[in-house]
Amino acid sequence: MFFHPILEPAAPDCPLEKMISPTAETKEAAPCRRSGPGRNSRKALRYLTTDALNAATAEALAARYGLDFEVIEPRDLQQPECKTNNLLVDWDFVPQDYQEKLLNGRIADIVGIHGYHVAESDASVLSCRGIIFSSRLDHHLLEALAARDA
Predict the structure, then answer these.
(1) Which end of the chain has fewer beta carbons closer than 10 Å to its terminal beta carbon, N or C?
(2) How far is CA 28 from the centre of its chain?
């Protein structure tokens, strides 16, 4: 995994308390669509992925925690009307050129990242920036994101 100089931690002893422990639990769901409109007053969680199975899994988990949820794809980031705040990123299914733009903070406000291809050193830097990280897309990750919005 590559290191992003822009992501240097603010403090060398930054805690890793926002790291999420992985589990194998996932559920299948209906095809990707916006779920939970008007369910609560929280900001919508937007999920950036190109993987349909992960999108369906995330949608089911978001519904479980009552999150207003919307799936977007990398091409959507180019649209001026695309709202990119409160973004959860499927790191393994986002092209590398988008990864760099995302981490530089120019095109989105990232609240969470999941992926197997994130180096431990990069994961600790994400935590220092207040970004919740998990190697897996599971109920622990969505629960942490729901608690953050509560």
Answers:
(1) C
(2) 18
pLDDT digits (tens, 9 = 90+) for 76-125: 887 776 767 899 999 999 988 888 888 877 678 899 999 999 988 888 88
Please say whether the beta carbons of 64 and 139 come within 8 A. yes
CATH code for the domain of 87: 3.40.50
Nearest to 85 by CA among 107, 68, 100, 69: 107
- Three-state SS sequence of 32-53: CCCECCCCCCCCCEEEECCCHH
Is residue 7 in some structural domain?
no
From the list 80, 81, 76, the residue with the least C-alpha distance to 89 is 76
107 token code pair: 């095109």
In a domain, 55, yes or no: yes
pLDDT over 90 percentage in the chain = 41
Identify the H or E element spanning 88.
strand 87-90
Sign of CA dihedral 7, 10, 13, 14: negative
pLDDT average, residue stretch 44-57: 95
Q: What residues make up the domain containing 69?
A: 26-149
- Tell me if 60 is assigned to some domain: yes
Residue 10 lies in a domain: no
* Cβ–Cβ under 8 Å, residues 21 and 140: yes
